[in-house]
Amino acid sequence: MDSIGNAQLEKLLLSSRLKLALIFIFLLALLLVVRVFNLQVTNHEYYQEEALGNQMRSLPITPARGKIFDRNGVLLATNQLTYQLTLTPEKVPNISKVLIELQRAGFIDEQDVKRYHKNRKRFRKFNNIPIKHNLSKDQVAKFLVSNQFPGIEVEPYFHRVYPHDSSSVHALGYVSRMNKKDKLQYDRQNYSGTQFVGKVGIEKQYETLLHGKTGIKQIERNVSGRVVDTKIITPSIAGQNLYLSLDLNMQKMAESVLAGKRGSIVVVNVKNGEVLTLVSTPTYNPNWFVNGISHANYELLQTSKDIPQLNRSIQGLYPPGSTVKPMVALAGLEEGINTTDSKTFCPGFFRLPNVKRKFNDWKRDGHGHVDMKDSIAQSCDVFFYDLADKMGIDKLHKNLTLFNFGQKTGIDIPGEKGGIMPSKSWKKINRNEPWYRGETLIAGIGQGFMTSSPLQLAVATAALANKGQLFQPKLLKSIQKPGESIVEANNKHSRQIPIKDIHHWEEVLEGMKMTIYAPKGTARRLNKGLTYTMAGKTGTAQVFGLDPEEQYIAEKYEEKLRDHALFTGFAPIEEPEIAIAIIVENAGSGSSKAAPLARKVLDVYFNQRSADGLMK
User: Fold this and answer.
1) What per-residue string of b and e applies to 118-155 under the rule 16 or more CB within 10 Å gives b?
2) Largest CB tally within 10 Å, which of 104, 113, 248, 441?
3) For 417-437, what is each residue's pLDDT tens digit?
């Protein structure tokens, strides 16, 4: 009985197990059918696109960046074909391990690893992410021979190069790797494959012109991930070439005469506002920044007391000193405060009525009786103390703002500062203090609260030379689209300064002429051997105020406390073509330290013009 019972029980167990197995098989088969139906029917199009996506990828084609030339067609910024090491995340199972192995093999360093992790979020997993730029030929050869790194490739790209190194850097600027701020600033689609953008100067100002238009290519990969075919869907369009108004020969001369000094030289075309020279020293090498500046070079720039990255030509604000005296003299004539025959006696100092303090002239024994032209040529402070006092600060402010003092010039590079042209209201708003009569006197000789940039001085001097036409300075001269002719940039803007009597302007310019040619002119040494005519104005700007009885002796003070040397001028006198402004920080006398530099830079311009005339 027991055996029969056991046989029936086993039979029941086997039957129930078979039923469960059949049910399980049926459910699995049903699940498989549903899954197949879902793949092949319901979501057929979606999965087909996904499958194709694994096989086909659309990637951006980065356009070649436009080149930059000077006015004579000399190359200032170009592109050089070089190579970079890239990593494709979806093809690298263990990225951290591979980066360590690449580092051990000497292909990358710690900075490259940090940079990769920093930039990783900008890319998708199927993008080739750069991890090392500007590989040497030896590095490329070594990698290709011993490539044991799947997902790591060597790719060609165009590397930005500045062939003249530090020359013209403050005008050109430089490109460097895109950051988060750049990504938000520019069109996402057009910059999808872009790694480098302009950071300062012309490179930043005209970034969208230089960049061009990104194209699209479609790549096909096999199951192992290797690219087997590439098809261009939309070709990229190269950026536009830019021709600047700069003259590289004048630039290099200006840089050489300022070598070892802190200062700036700006030269503008009197007839149209084009900037021929825009130099700030000390300089730095823009090539350092293209692929990421090294720690050593970064430290060099950051720790320099001379601040090489400061563009002194547009950001350096200095007391203009005596270089504003021609404009102050013109204001006095136009306002009817004095005439061309008005004379002032200069005993070497000036006193306000009932005020003990003396306002000293730079010449302690005085200039004697001087008229307006003599006062410009000899830079007599007392004449301008007296004139400013009679005019008052508000009239002085009104007339000097006509020459754009206290305002930005509008030059086409970023970062310009406007300087200060003080007035009663300005002081009340900015200092919450009343204006004092003595402050008007020192404003009349370009000291006190008044500040301006070298560019502002050059633009104002040009407006004086051409008798009232104030141009907005420009660096961009011409544009060339890919495959097309060079076209003049339509960017000339100017305004006319109101003129009451043209003879007033001519008399002031005569005073500037006498600065160079009169026996007592402060820049009379410049006329020796001069092959063209020149008018000018020297200036010396105090860094700090002296007590009335204290005499300034440069050797008594550390260099940073010594006077700045300035010079402004234009040439030729009869038909002015160019105007110049120079400042040399803490150099002392404008007549001895700044004016001779102007002569060397202007010589380049007129020697070139003579050579061009002979060639024609």
Assistant:
1) ebeeebeebbbbbbbbebeeebbeebeeeeebebbbbe
2) 441
3) 999 999 999 999 999 999 999
Which backbone phi and psi does 350 adopt, to 5 degrees? -135, 140
- Nearest of 445, 468, 442, 470 to residue 455 by alpha carbon: 470
State residue 503 phi and psi, 5-degree precision: -65, -30
Note the CATH number of domain 248-282+310-615.
Answer: 3.40.710.10
CB distance 396 to 442 below 8 Å = no
Q: What is the pLDDT of residue 55?
A: 60
Catalytic residue among 167, 280, 322, 423: 322
Could you report the per-residue pLDDT of 59-101, keeping only the tens digit for each? 888 899 999 999 999 999 999 988 888 887 877 778 888 888 7
Collapse the DSSP code of 94 into the 3-class scheme (helix H, G, I; strand E, B; otherwise coil) and give the result: coil
Distance separating alpha carbons of residues 482 and 241, to the nearest angstrom: 8
Residue with tokens 């002119």: 521
Beta strands in 392-525, from DSSP E residues, in sequence order: 469-471, 476-480, 486-488, 494-496
pLDDT tens-digit profile of 311-321? 999 999 999 99
Provide the pLDDT for residue 92: 77
Contact 606, 614 (CB under 8 A): no
- Measured CA to CA, the distance from residue 469 to residue 494 in angstroms comes to 7
Neighbours of 595 (CB within 10 A): 28
Provide the residue ranges of all domains of the chain, joining segments of one domain with +. Answer: 58-244, 248-282+310-615
Give, in order, the Cα–Cα distances in Å from 103 to each of 120, 133, 150, 292.
Answer: 18, 14, 15, 18
Tokens standing for 293?
A: 């500046």
Residues in the chain predicted with pLDDT less than 70, given as ranges, are 1-5, 39-56, 122, 124-127, 147, 221-229, 543-560, 613-616
Active site residue 322: yes
Q: What is the C-alpha separation between 48 and 46, in angstroms, rounded?
A: 5
With beta carbons less than 8 A apart as the criterion, state whether 415 and 549 touch: no
Cis before 282? omega within 30: yes
DSSP-assigned beta bridge partners for residue 264: 280, 583
Say what angle helices 381-391 and 325-334 make with each other, to 10 degrees: 40
